[in-house]
Amino acid sequence: MIVIPILGPQLYLAATDGDDEFAPRTRVRTAVGVSLFLLLSFSGVAGGTDRTLVGLLAAGLLIGYLASEGVGGYRSTREVV
Q1: Cβ(45)–Cβ(67) under 8 Å?
Q2: Which residues have a Cβ under 8 Å from the Cβ of 28 and sit 6 or more positions away?
Q3: Measuring CA to CA, how many Å separate 20 from each of 17, 33, 34, 72?
């Protein structure tokens, strides 16, 4: 799919890049946002099974992102206390 070349490198850099130019959460948010935009725009022109597959990919990406933000928020509140 078209999302993998966008999402893959950004997630890799978020996990391994020691440079402080961009925070890892910023990389993940940008990659997920661009990927969701592309998936939703492609779902408008796809038909039938392809539309279902693209919709499931977008939903999975959104759920994964929300779970990641929830875990990150939980960890940050646990470190403060």
Answers
A1: no
A2: 10, 11, 14, 65, 68
A3: 8, 21, 22, 18
Residue among 8, 69, 62 at smallest CA distance from 33 = 62
25-32 long-range contacts, Cβ below 8 Å, gap at least 24?
Answer: 25/72, 28/65, 28/68, 29/65, 31/6, 31/7, 32/7, 32/61, 32/62, 32/65
For residue range 22-75, list pLDDT tens digits in order: 788 888 888 888 888 988 888 888 888 989 998 898 899 999 999 988 988 888
H or E element in which residue 79 lies: helix 49-80
CB 6 within 8 A of CB 35: yes
